[in-house]
Amino acid sequence: MQIRAYAYLVATTLFWGGNAVAGKLAVGHISPMMLNFGRWSLAFVLLLSISAGQIRAEWPIVRRHIPLLLGLGAIGYTGFNGFLYSALQYTSAVNGAIEQGGITVLIFVLNFLIFRIPASATQIAGFMISFIGVALTAGHGDLVALLSLRLNLGDGLMLLAVLCYAIFTIALRWKPDLHWKTLMAALAFGALIASLPLVAWEEASGKLILPDATGYALILFCGLLPSLVSQTLYIAGVNMIGANRAGLFINLVPVFGTILSVVVVGERLETFHIVALVLVIGGIALAEWGKPTLKTT
């Protein structure tokens, strides 16, 4: 069972890494908010087709938590992907993939500030190392650039994407107890609704690009694999080996994203990218190894 869980989780992070590459490939073929709208429209329709009965059975619970569920979908899915796809109009897919490593760091910081969740000295050191890796990427190998505030617009948007997903992750502690089909359908609907005014904004500002053949292919990929299939496999993996162990696999997203960016998009792999990857993954691994041990009585 563990081998199967590992396979599920590796596939999940592979598709999530591919999401950044898809956003880069979309440039000129479909605008960022239209891609986000198309992705979650497809995901919602597919989820609804397989979960209608489950949703009807759990509708009383869903109705009581509609604002929370729609808000989670809007922030975690539309907010994150909207900023991600917009960022990739200006920065590389490699940078976008590596900077996602900052999600774990920000979750740690927010958990400490809001909920006072403790951390060991080793864990803090690990997060700091990981943060340096993210900063190195954002500064394109020049940390002095950060001190002089010379950030690429795309990297700044990527940091907003990281903030959205960190908030989404923390807020999941308040999600209602629902079957995964119902939960995913509700979150996808929230993402779909939130994407509509953003598409309208693109139209009003003259930035809307309707999908061509490549754009439709990217909608299909993002709606099926990073959204529907990845979420299903991730939930299955969590059920098999537990949330804590399954969560470690998210650290593979920057690795797969970087590899796919070089292989598929043909982007250049710089020395600072490799150093940043080592720092991000190594720092997170150190933080996990040094996590506080819960006392039992």
Describe, in plain words, how this protein is organized in 3D:
The protein has helices spanning about 1-25, 30-65, 65-85, 95-100, 100-115, 120-140, 145, 155-170, 180-205, 215-240, 245, 250-265, 270-290. With about 300 residues, the protein is mainly alpha-helical. The chain has one domain.
Keywords:
mainly alpha, 13 helices, globular, transmembrane, Drug/metabolite transporter (DMT)-like permease, transmembrane helix, EamA_dom, membrane
Please, how many domains? 1
End-to-end separation in angstroms reads 31 Å
Shape: globular
Low-confidence runs: none
Question: What portion of residues belong to β-strands?
Answer: under 5%
**Global mean pLDDT:** 83
Rg over C-alpha atoms, rounded to the nearest angstrom: 19 Å
Largest sheet: none
SSE string, helices as H and strands as E:
HHHHHHHHHHHHH
Fraction in helix: over 70%
Counting DSSP H or I runs of 4 or more residues, the number of helices is 13
Q: How does the SSE layout of this entry go?
A:
Elements: H1 2-25, H2 32-64, H3 66-87, H4 93-99, H5 102-115, H6 121-138, H7 143-147, H8 153-171, H9 180-204, H10 213-241, H11 243-247, H12 252-265, H13 271-289
Helix pairs in contact: 1-4, 1-10, 1-12, 2-3, 2-9, 2-10, 3-8, 3-9, 4-12, 5-6, 5-8, 6-13, 12-13
Concise synopsis of the structure shown:
With 297 residues, this protein is mostly helical. It has helices at 2-25, 32-64, 66-87, 93-99, 102-115, 121-138, 143-147, 153-171, 180-204, 213-241, 243-247, 252-265, 271-289.
